[in-house]
Amino acid sequence: MDIEKRLLEHDKRAAARLITKVENGDPEGYKILQTLYPNSGKAYVIGVTGPPGAGKSTLTDKMVKALRKQGKTVSVIAVDPTSPFTGGAILGDRVRMTDLSMDPGVFIRSMGARGHLGGISEATSAAVKVLDIMGSDYIFVETVGVGQSEIDIVKNCDTTLMIMVPGLGDDIQAIKAGVMEIGDVFAVNKADRDGAKRTAREIQMMLDFNKDKGWRPPVKMVIATENNGIDELIEAIHQHKAYMIENNLFESRRVENAKSEVLELIKERIERMILDQSQKEEALDAYAKRVAGRELDPYSAVDKVMMDMKVKI
Question: May I ask which residue range the UniProt record assigns to the signal sequence (predicted)?
């Protein structure tokens, strides 16, 4: 089966197979991506993040349906917490989007976070490229919802949608403190609940501290379950895209994203090299014991590991 040819023909099965390959670290998968990379860069990538229980999946579902009515093809990558026993995704966002999975213009994939604290699976950026090459107009990346460590989502997306809900109590301040700066558009979901307007006001107040930013993120009130405010939310995302293009920020954001990705890949490769050359971590474990026993400082341990690898820093 020629995955490359079928992917360029918008074949969803070819996309699914290639994503599985990159998730499993199959060199063939990355070789295909290297070949087809010039065909990527056309899709608009939207990150959807927020605390657990904010209704991210329901809101994503409604936005996808709205874009489908406009004739757009859409893909969704739902990054789930990973089972500590099987390594597989356990939330199963696809279960909550079953009717979408029957739409030929929609592709949905759940991916395990695999212990990655940024809320994003390490293979997510590769999966985004696969779906981009397949011809998706929009790609939604919905994250685990782990609070302050969601910062990684910015490195994969063109627009980041931050979803909040009323009733979070004191937790909302901690959540905001870490992630307010990554949101390009804010949505207060479940806006029919008590405290929704207060939550919106609090977000607006937090945004007032970023007066030096040219783009002031809009705060939209939505009720996803009733399809309320969805069109306005999509319009806000389009406005953010237009702002970035008009102010020559769109390309610079993608350059920053590419830089972050390259650095992340370098880190991963160095880590693999260290573990591969350490006889299944035995040498590394030995250094770690010496560091823990205060016989060796961690800085000298790094120098020794690099010397063992014959790598100059």
Answer: none
